[in-house]
Amino acid sequence: MQKIIFGHLIFLVFLVFRNELNAQNSLFLSFPTLDTSQRNINAESLLREVNWEKVASFCDTTEGHYARKYASDLITTYNYTKQGNTANFKITIFKGKVLEYRSHVNGLFKTNYFNRDLWLQYVEADDKFKDSAWTLTKEEMSQQFDQVVQAYYTLIGFNSRDEYGWICEYAAAGIPPDKRLAVIELINYKRRDFLVKLLDHPNLQTKLYVADALIYLDMIGEIKSVEMVHFKGGKKHKKYLWKYTNQYKLSKQEWKKIKKIRDADYTIITCGNMGSYKQYKSTSAELLSQEAIRKIYTHYSTFKLLGYLF
Description:
This protein is α+β, with helices and mostly antiparallel strands. The chain folds into 2 domains: 1-127, no CATH class; 132-310, no CATH class. The protein is 45% helix and 22% strand. The chain has helices at residues 2-28, 43-49, 52-61, 116-125, 127-130, 138-142, 146-155, 178-188, 192-198, 204-220, 252-263, 284-287, 290-306; strands at residues 65-71, 75-82, 87-94, 97-105, 109-114, 168-170, 173-175, 223-230, 236-242, 267-271, 279-283. Helix 7 (146-155) crosses helix 8, helix 8 packs parallel to helix 10 and helix 9 runs antiparallel to helix 10 (204-220). It is built from 13 helices and 11 strands.
């Protein structure tokens, strides 16, 4: 009798595992790869292609999978994330057409679709960007990669949470916030000029992101090697050996701006990786303190290990 019960249990576990695997495969294999040369992609067609209704239903009943739809006055966003961010897609829709579409699955493929012509229509419709001095002109956009344009607009407030952090807990998965990914993208594409420009942006969280990115660039122009120093009691401490260079070095004026942000002691909205998503309040004085600055290199090195930073 016990053998029969045990056999049934094994069979049930097998069925659950098989159904989970089949469900995941049916979801993941539905992620289309779009090319930015494609124009005016119908939103409903793409949602059918990614099986949004099926994805949302699957996430409602399956732990570790999360689907969310959220809308503003002008855009609607559909987002799916597998715990650990090993699979994800995000579709942003404007006027019934796909404005942005990003997806990735286990690092096997990534896609980034961005409709520039539709974006210019969106900018004209959104009061936040329409008359903003921070908005890029069509000519300025034409000189940049899609990823650079998207990162820049993320930092000035497009479709992103207004919070500062390194790794934050979203849908039971610790991943970098949107604005963190944006500054990493600008670093990857060597657009230090945009980072310097955004030091003057009025958004406080944006100021902090570009400040630590510029400090990191200053540091990698100087750090020659890192060695571990061992102390009594088993404690370890990183010791940096420096090699000075002017490649990414902060100018006196840039340092002055960063110190001004620190000394103003602004209240900064932050997020963390403490087991569940929550926003906290900190200050620019704390986040740009000497102790915090010493940790910047380590944080960005972690992003390199995780594959975010080139």
